[in-house]
Amino acid sequence: MHEPYETPMELLPHRDPFLFLDELLEVDEKHTVAKRVFTADHFFFKGHFPDYPVVPGVILVETMAQCGGAGLCQAGILPHGAFFVLATIEKAKFRAQVRPGDTAIIEVHNTRVSQSMLRQNGTITVNGQKAAEASWMCIVGNQNQL
Fold first, then answer.
1. For residues 134 and 89, is the Cβ–Cβ distance under 8 A?
2. Residue 13 to residue 143: CA distance in whole angstroms
3. Strand partners, 88
4. pLDDT tens across 4-62, in order?
5. β-sheet bridge partners, residue 132
């Protein structure tokens, strides 16, 4: 059994309504697994196909990137609250819809990490079905450098 992980709010600078992780489930130097329940009251459901609400693909990519960043902070590879921004998104594929009430399991793998840049790839699954996947690069620094 692992020690209890810190909350995403303790690890990331993101805040409501743009913090898309509920909890970390597994963390090590190579990968992170987290969970997010997309509830019907999320702000984007009001206007993103209101008669058939679906989590926007860009939110799913952001969710994966937040998972990867939180894991790096939890593992001590990046400092808590590290400031990182997406620089590239590659190979994004959306294979199934994520809808209100769905529990997303996010798994992110680190492919290259330095103090100024990170490359990761990840997937989101819902009920065992792959809903989204992508790879990305983030620039790491402080707000004055970027």
1. yes
2. 11
3. 137
4. 899 999 999 999 999 999 999 999 999 999 999 999 999 999 999 999 999 999 999 99
5. 94, 124
Contact in structure between 63 and 98 (CB atoms under 8 Å): no
Per-residue pLDDT of 78-98, as tens digits, reads: 998 889 999 999 999 999 999
Query: Which three-class secondary structure state does DSSP give residue 8?
Result: helix
Measured distance CA(134)–CA(120) in Å, rounded: 9
Which residues does the annotation mark as catalytic? 48
Q: Given CA atoms 101, 105, 111, 114 in this order, what sign does their dihedral have?
A: positive
Find out whether 31 and 15 touch, Cβ atoms under 8 Å: no
Answering whether pTM is above 0.90, one says: yes
